[in-house]
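Title: Prediction job returns without error message
Component: structure pipeline
Severity: low
Priority: P3
Assignee: unassigned

Description:
Job completed but the reporter wants confirmation the result is attached to the right record. Sequence as submitted:
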Amino acid sequence: MVRKKTVTEAEVVESPSAPPKKGGKTAAKAEQGTAAPVKKTAPKSASKKNPSSPAAKPKKTASSKTSATKASSEKTLSADALSKKPVKKQATKKSPASRPKTKTALSSAAGSSDRTLVIVESPTKAKTLTKILGSKYTVKSSVGHIRDLPKSRLAIDIENDFAPEYILVKGKAKLKNELLAAAKQSPRVLLASDPDREGEAIAWHLAELLDIPLDTECRVRFYEITPTAVKEALAHPERVNMHKVEAQQARRILDRLVGYTLSPLLWKKIRRGLSAGRVQSVALALICEREREIEAFVPKEYWIVTVVAVAEDGRLYSLKVDSFDGKSLWKEGKSLLIDSEEFVDVLVGEILKSPLTVSDFKVRESYRAAPAPFKTSTLQQESARRNSMSPRRTMSIAQELFEGVSLPDRGPTGLITYMRTDSLRIAPEALETCRQYITSAFDPEYLPEKANEYAS
């Protein structure tokens, strides 16, 4: 959101297509001639034209087109306003309560719309939400972070409470202007980035850029991209969670402090190109510690003796030798006490000397509980075990399934809930849907009396 700037007697609205100049002021070139003296009178509204004042020529620039509103406002500037003599203005601090009024004024000046603006992170998610929300909403994407720390320097003020210096991400100036223009034309802006720490930080950066007061309910969180979940979230917007924002900011600052101070030391002392980091350095230490344990391990020989037996009715049994002379041969879950081939020959000889006899036989019925839903770590582990997929590829595919894939006759559709989570909670609506499906597709005995609950 762009705040309203006042140049003496006329209001000038900056064009969203051109980046704002330093200080936020709009310069205009006055007509040649003698400028009238500046009168100390109360400022007048930009909409009221003074017929006695000569009209100023609108400034022409080659970099961007000027909106109709801006052109009309510049035409009403008087010679007094365009005088080269500086006019001192008293700075007034705007309270958070007055900020929405600025947005309303800009919306009416730029041609307001009755469509609510929803900003998400991903263009794919924007397409899915556009299909769900319909014509009353405009959905745009920030394409990830829109502000971040610069890569060329530390950008952390260590002497001033570790304050970070954020800049616009390279290449996103056009996107910023598009979001500013869309925000000015919409009566309401909702920030719908992902419901995690990174997403909360993106929502905060967008609120800062668009001048959205943080004490307003402008934040919506989608934990699943389904019509029911999306409409429920839009019906109950919340404020930006500053605790999550500060948690992400602390992590980002630590990343920068560790990486930008230790990496140059590694280049100097060991080899150029090495890097250190808040996470990778600790992970490397754990790997080195485990490698030392492997190198210090002393291999120990042990054997497993298995007997294949056939019952009178033809059934096959695979039996493992468990004890000898009344003493267990197993230790720590392994047959460590069968430690030589000579001892194996002794055991085999004892088995062959006498027939096998079944002394006891029990049949038990056991129940296996349904596995818990995936969380981030178990999803990555199972994907690596079953499909030999890397964590990066697993999360990339999961992101596409969450944001929505194109299905025949349905268009973009979200297929899984949010995948970056440690929670095992299942939404009540999803539980009820599953129970209804079990009732309709299977026998009643397969439906438990109550739904399974899992501890995180």
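Comment from assignee: result matches the submitted record. DSSP finds twelve helices and 15 strands in the chain.
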